[in-house]
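Reviewer 2 asked us to include a model.

Predict the structure of this chain.
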Amino acid sequence: MPAPVTRRQVVAGLSTGGVLSTLGCLGGDSQRLSLGVGPVDSRSHTAGKALSVAVDQHAEGVSLSIESVKGASQRLYALSEGQFDAAAVDNTTLYRAIEGTGVFDLDAVETVPAQGFSYGWLDHYWLTASDAAADLESTAEFSEELTVYPVQPGMSSRLVTEQLLRAADRWEGIGIDNRPRTAVPAAVDGGEIDVVAAVEPSGQRLAAWCQQLDDQVGDRLGALPVGDAFESAIESAPNAVGGQIEPTGWETARLPSAVDGWRLPMQWLVSPDADSEAVAELTRLAADHAETIRSVDELAVAHSEPDALAAAVIEDQPVHEGVATAFKALDIWDDDWTETDAVD
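Predicted model (structure tokens):
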């Protein structure tokens, strides 16, 4: 296992060559916000690029600069240290920072950033992939005879899936496969994996490795219900959302129109010190110019449906004051939520 990345290493490792700047529409009166995103072609980088295009074309009073930092935990560290005004982070990473678990147990975040607005999610569901698993009724029947692939270690999908399996008391006593995602189709074809956690970004297409799985062994795949214990684990997890998912993009596999699954929201976390008016304008822009955003990021959430902006909010964690202002104007604010006092 690689050594944990410290905040000092994160700050030292900030990309200096991949900065994308957007100057906005108001020249010298513009408030500049800096966004931390993942590497080029990553989900968060595409989301940040789309937001920057929307700012360039439509913003009033806000400009953006975008900088790449690999890894959601590294971006959260950098955000908490004041390197950015906002950063793209999934809710499992946020939850782990709040709880002080995983890497945050070794190197805690002194100030957890405020919540912002959603830019997407990852949908997950279980698939049987072998004759040994074909007759399973749910995850309740996982046993030591089965090998389960809960996604590649270190990925956000793996973190939430492992968390739920442990909470459902399904982790111990089963075989866990940790190979890279790209090696999974061949492993299933060779009879080495019995159950797979499939992934769909924003419920709109298959992850690339799942598409390969469908192409190579789709005729072996079947949907697996989550079972009562796993469902309870989802319901108890602040960072996951349970429900029925419509499998998308499968051509060879014959799956039902809806399956049990769990969703991992992703959002722009915001520094409490970020300018409130600029953050409110950025949030408003995401709601009002969804078409521009989708022209760059085809997996963007349906921001034209205002509720989608707030879909990632964890109830007990404060929302940035600027985001809260925009949510209230859009009539999507929940009075059970709290907001931070940002510095103007």
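The first strand starts at residue 20 and ends at 22. The CA atoms of residues 147 and 175 lie 4 Å apart. We have added this to the supplementary material.
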